[in-house]
């Protein structure tokens, strides 16, 4: 089974007419349950771990709103009216930071143990929320290494 990596994105967010990928799903348990119930009733459920739902968010008037849900590989789009009976859902539950990807660079590294690694450097926007209201946006960087698929060089 495939596991998400540190640079896996799970949706997008629109900030001042710019769209960024995000590294989390800032959705609450009650809303997640409604989406799951809809998928069970009307299809769209997949056991394939690489096919995930995509959540699209927007910040308007310094508030976070869920505005679109795509189930699977885009086969079922914009289910807001069907699931939540509204076009956008105010994320009043959101109190966690959200990281939005601005840019990403990858570099190949070779360690002294003949292991092949990848260095990932990302510029992000760190969005801080309290009860769904945007408190601040900070520019930040994130850096980490990951093993490459062909981890070991033959000796």
- Helix count equals 2
Tell me the overall shape: globular
Strand content: over 45%
- Quaternary structure state of the chains depicted: single chain
How many structural domains does the protein architecture include? 2
> How many extended strands?
8
Order of helices and strands: EEHEEHEEEE
What helical percentage do the residues reach?
10-25%
Mean pLDDT: 82
Please state the CA-atom Rg, rounded to the nearest Å: 18 Å
- Sheet with most strands: 8 strands, mixed
Strand order of the largest sheet: 5-4-3-1-2-6-7-8
Task: Extract low-pLDDT stretches.
Answer: 151-155
Q: How are the elements arranged and paired?
A:
Elements (H helix, E strand, L loop, with lengths): L10 E5 L2 E5 L6 H14 L11 E7 L2 E8 L9 H5 L4 E2 L7 E13 L4 E16 L2 E20 L3
Parallel strand pairs: 1-3
Antiparallel strand pairs: 1-2, 2-6, 3-4, 4-5, 6-7, 7-8
Which descriptors would you attach to this protein?
155 residues, mainly beta, 2 domains, 2 helices, disordered C terminus
Walkthrough of the structure:
- The chain is mainly beta and 155 residues long.
- It has two domains: 80 residues, no CATH class; 55 residues, no CATH class.
- An eight-stranded mixed β-sheet has the order 5-4-3-1-2-6-7-8, with no helix packed on it.
- The relative contact order is 0.18.
- The C terminus is likely disordered.
Brief sketch in words of this structure:
This protein is mostly beta strands.
């Amino acid at each position: 089974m495939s596991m998400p990596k540190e640079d896996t994105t799970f949706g997008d967010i629109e900030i001042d007419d710019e769209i960024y990928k995000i590294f989390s799903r800032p959705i609450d348990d009650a809303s997640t349950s409604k989406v799951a119930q809809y998928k069970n009733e009307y299809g769209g459920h997949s056991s394939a771990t690489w096919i995930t739902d995509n959540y699209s968010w927007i910040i308007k008037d310094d508030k976070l709103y869920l505005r679109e849900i795509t189930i699977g590989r885009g086969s079922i789009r914009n289910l807001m009216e069907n699931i939540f009976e509204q076009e956008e859902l105010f994320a009043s539950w959101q109190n966690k930071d959200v990281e939005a990807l601005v840019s990403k660079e990858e570099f190949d590294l070779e360690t002294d143990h003949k292991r092949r690694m990848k260095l990932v450097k990302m510029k992000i926007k760190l969005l801080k929320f309290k009860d769904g209201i945007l408190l601040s946006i900070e520019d930040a960087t994130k850096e980490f290494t990951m093993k490459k698929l062909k981890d070991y060089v033959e000796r």
